[in-house]
Amino acid sequence: MDxxxxxxxxxxxxxxxxxxxxxxxxxxxxAAVREVFEETGLSAPDYAFLxxxxxxxxxxPPKWRHRYAPEVSHNTETVFSLCLPxxxxxxxxxxxxxxAEWLPARDAIDxxxxxxxxxxxxxxxRIDPRISATFTRHLASTSKN
Length: 145
Fold this sequence. Notes:
The protein is an alpha+beta fold. The chain has a single domain (2-142), classed as Nucleoside Triphosphate Pyrophosphohydrolase, CATH 3.90.79.10. It is 31% helix and 28% strand. The chain has helices at residues 28-40, 105-111, 115-125, 129-142; strands at 2-8, 14-16, 48-59, 74-83, 97-104. The strands form two sheets. The chain has a three-stranded antiparallel beta sheet with strand order 2-1-5. The protein has a two-stranded antiparallel ribbon with strand order 3-4. Strand 1 (2-8) and strand 2 (14-16) form a beta hairpin. The protein is globular, with a radius of gyration of 15 Å.
């Protein structure tokens, strides 16, 4: 399984998966679809897009605090995955990322800065490839409904 990582320089230099924040009145799923498109140019509903039903809550690192209201000290992430038939070309949002790379899951885990990103990749990578292929076909056939 290959994983798309995006290289970010601000507020510090690190690698991550597609991430983002909720807009007012937006569900986590809507935010994930929007962020995938903004950061990669890919339309998530066209592929096997899965909500893992997993949320991670963690303290906001000091380097990110300026992006939140003063009373906000923790962030909650919802884990989604997007399974593509093959690694596809992407269109980067140059304001956020200056590089992208498709890597085997093991290499991606070694490069990712955030523990929540690493755990999400580990979760996706644990799916047996035979099950994953069947699951991907099933999701692809139902995700457009």
